[in-house]
Amino acid sequence: MGVRIPRPPLSSSGRATIADVAQAAGVSKATVSRFLNHRERLLSPDIATRVETAIAALGFSPNPVAQTLSRGRSRLIGLIVADITNPYSVAVLRGAEKACQDAGYLVMLFNLGNEYGREREAINALASYQVDGFILNTLGRGAGAVDAVTMHGKPAVLVDRRHDGMEADFVSLDNVGAVDLACSHLREGGWRELLYVSEPVKDVSTRRERTGAFGEFVATHAADGVTGEVFECEESATDALDDALRALHARSTKTRRAALITGNAVVTLRIAAAMTRLGWQFGRELGFVGFDDPEWAPLVGPGLSAIEQPTDAIGRGAANCLIERLRGLEGPARQLMLPGHLVVRGSSAPAALAAPTASATPSAVSSTALP
Amino acid sequence: MGVRIPRPPLSSSGRATIADVAQAAGVSKATVSRFLNHRERLLSPDIATRVETAIAALGFSPNPVAQTLSRGRSRLIGLIVADITNPYSVAVLRGAEKACQDAGYLVMLFNLGNEYGREREAINALASYQVDGFILNTLGRGAGAVDAVTMHGKPAVLVDRRHDGMEADFVSLDNVGAVDLACSHLREGGWRELLYVSEPVKDVSTRRERTGAFGEFVATHAADGVTGEVFECEESATDALDDALRALHARSTKTRRAALITGNAVVTLRIAAAMTRLGWQFGRELGFVGFDDPEWAPLVGPGLSAIEQPTDAIGRGAANCLIERLRGLEGPARQLMLPGHLVVRGSSAPAALAAPTASATPSAVSSTALP
DNA sequence: TTGTATGCGTTATCAT
DNA sequence: ATGATAACGCATACAA
Predict the structure, then answer these.
(1) Chains A–B, number of C-beta pairs less than 8 Å apart
(2) Residue A148 to residues A118, A131, A154, A222, B134: CA-CA distances in angstroms?
(3) pLDDT digits 0-9 by tens, B84-134
(4) CA B55 – CA B226 distance, rounded (Å)
(5) Residues 6+ apart with CB under 8 A from A43
(6) % of chain A with per-residue pLDDT over 70
């Protein structure tokens, strides 16, 4: 069967418009519009089919720009991400994208490239395109950007970083649960001297929560001989980092081995570089569990144990929260905290001959075989 | 100085419109529009300032949706990417994004999530939002998507994958140059038994070009004792991969050592997994150089030698090509082939005591110190 | 149930 | 140089 060349639209423009369809079907523009929007009610069957065939014949599809202008809504969701180079952000983005698509929304992405000053600009740009709502995977400090969104009167959902002054839905990893998961795992493996390495905490909520939970854990298990410190790792301060690792290692003994916990994959990368600088191996000189489970985690040394985040669920959850609001859901801001997942690899293996403790792992934990 | 609450716009909507500005300045809408678009010419100084202050007072900024509807152009550039999970694609995206932004364009991203069947859908969706042109970082086979773009009559530029039936600008890595770079480096290091591992070549132009160039290199240097084969590595055929590595290793001798070359980071990941499965180490049992230089390349074994792609330049180049077309540039399709960059690490180190050959490296090559 | 007329915010073609 | 006014493509209040 050959390809049918559709009858050329009558309008001057390249694409068929609602007017063309109306003329072809011998009805008014309003009728066509009704067919498009209020199909079920308000339509006589005979004329409906006439419109339907006309639409098919002309290959008509409505112009979303015109729809947006007319409706004031766009079925676009604005997604602002701090740094699209970060695989974690991308994974969340994908989840959100899928959920939006399922609900008939398209996401318009704005990448900040880590220039937090562009937050307002991003919000305004997206708002000017009439996005119906925002998903914010970033938020510098200060309320600057906050009221930028609320000012536009559009709903927003925060991902990963909460912000005090803002009454918005919030979804993220259950940080304290995840920290407990990691620390408990290390403790059970005989690791007692703990060092939590974070990017500069500042007032980034995620980092605050994680370091806080770490402090809690250490305090709670002090009687058990657990010791812990936090190290804030600056981008280029490699010497300071190396010193911190050396100090940690110096405290390590056969019965109280020392281990690292990193706050995200960026830090993990720095730590891994430091370890090769020092000529040390994960799981031998120092134990290790890191937040985020990048694809390369199994390849470094004996494999890096990790806390995998439910990125897809976080993205979907955020999108769904927002979509519910767009559908008119009222009520106070909600919180969605999703559990992390511990992936055990060689870097946190218990001492070869020790560890008579639990061979069964908690239910939230699943271990993957080494490759 | 306190915050001035701007005089509320007179329109029903939340934002000030051109009509509000006109009224506030005591002029007509047309005049305001002229001020916005044809500032230099056609304007009396006194009335210009009146408009200007009115705009400032109301905090007016034009509504791009309305502009798009009226002009038929949107100052949006549609970027379709095969898989946003792929760091290479993201890096290119970032380059393109920057160039677009510099030229006053916003990019609208569509991620295929590797579902190539959605190509047409993506193109149509973007086109319906009146994007002014396309950057295509993907193109399944078949001309399906090709005429989808040309049909919309909008200019497009292809990145990374060319497509025969399509008269469009094309920008990518200089694949044959890059292959020569990698192979020459290995040859000089005493690696003679070469295996090029690629994803299934099918008719993806990049893969065809690289494997082709590899074949050329081997043929050219056969007299020098160089031998080479190509292995197409399926997603889940780990056994076949392991066998291929074993076979390669079996052919390795002290004077004719065996090395791998991978076609991209995805394959590199599979290879690295295979190496740990086999208990082998890069640079010892097998030499290695891979296309793409992921952030974790320095961390695997002795460090993975890599061909770094000029992703930023590729992205910028693509965007600039397109923008030139949007500005009216005519003429035949152009090609932009950017050189790769060899990063030497431990995985391709010459045999400890051998290799009296060139200590100086070609100019296109730069080596980075091991961490 | 269907058609007419108007508005969404801008640009552009006329006059003046 | 400036002001009415008609598009742009669609949605909708109002009439019929």
Answers:
(1) 98
(2) 12, 14, 10, 45, 31
(3) 999 999 999 999 999 999 999 999 999 999 888 888 899 999 999 999 999
(4) 72
(5) A34, A35
(6) 88
Largest separation between any pair of C-alpha atoms in chain A: 88
Q: How far is CA A9 from the centre of its chain?
A: 44
Contact predicate B293/B299, CB 8 Å: no
Q: How many angstroms separate the CA atoms of A79 and A107, rounded?
A: 7
Q: Sheet holding A341-343: strands in order across?
A: A227-232, A191-198, A257-262, A287-291, A305-308, A341-343
How long is chain B?
A: 371
The residue count for chain A: 371
| DSSP result, B143-169 | SHHHHHHHHHT--EEEES---TT---E
A75: left (phi over 0), alpha (psi -120 to 50) or beta: left
**What are the Cα distances from residue B185, in Å, to B44, B161, B192, B223, B366?**
68, 26, 11, 17, 11
In the 8-state DSSP scheme, what is residue B189? T
- Highest-pLDDT range among A11-15, A119-123, A338-342: A338-342
Strand C and B68 CB separated by under 7 Å: no
Instruction: Strands of chain A (E only): list them.
Output: 76-81, 106-111, 133-137, 156-159, 169-173, 191-198, 227-232, 257-262, 287-291, 305-308, 335-338, 341-343
Cβ neighbours of residue B148 under 8 Å, at least 6 residues apart?
Answer: B119, B120, B123, B124
The CA–C1' separation of A67 and D8, in angstroms, is 12
Q: What is the residue-averaged pLDDT of chain B?
A: 89
Give A72's contacts in chain B (Cβ within 8 Å): 13
Q: Which pLDDT tens digit goes with each residue over B35-49?
A: 999 877 767 889 999
Least Cα distance to A334 among A156, A215, A213 occurs for A156
Q: Which of A108, A124, A276 has its CB closest to that of B299?
A: A276
Strand order in the sheet with A76-81: A106-111, A76-81, A133-137, A156-159, A169-173, A335-338
* Domains detected in chain B: 18-62 (no CATH), 73-167+313-338 (3.40.50.2300), 175-304+345-369 (3.40.50.2300)
What token pair was written down for A103? 């609900």
Determine contact, residues A136/A115, Cβ cutoff 8 Å. Answer: no
Distance of CA A306 to the CA centre of its chain: 17
E strands present in chain B: 76-81, 106-111, 133-136, 156-159, 169-173, 191-198, 227-232, 257-262, 287-291, 305-308, 335-338, 341-343
Q: CB of A65 under 7 A from strand C?
A: no
pLDDT computed for residue B3 by the predictor: 42
What backbone torsions phi and psi does residue A17 show, to the nearest 5 degrees? -115, 175
- Map tokens 């699943």 to a residue: A366
On whether the pTM is more than 0.85, the answer is yes
Mean predicted confidence (pLDDT) in B225-244 = 95
What is residue A4's DSSP assignment? P
Q: Which of B93, B309, B319, B95 is nearest to B206 (CA)?
A: B309
Mean pLDDT of chain A: 89
B17 CA from C10 C1′ (Å):
10
Answer whether residue B233 shows pLDDT above 90: yes
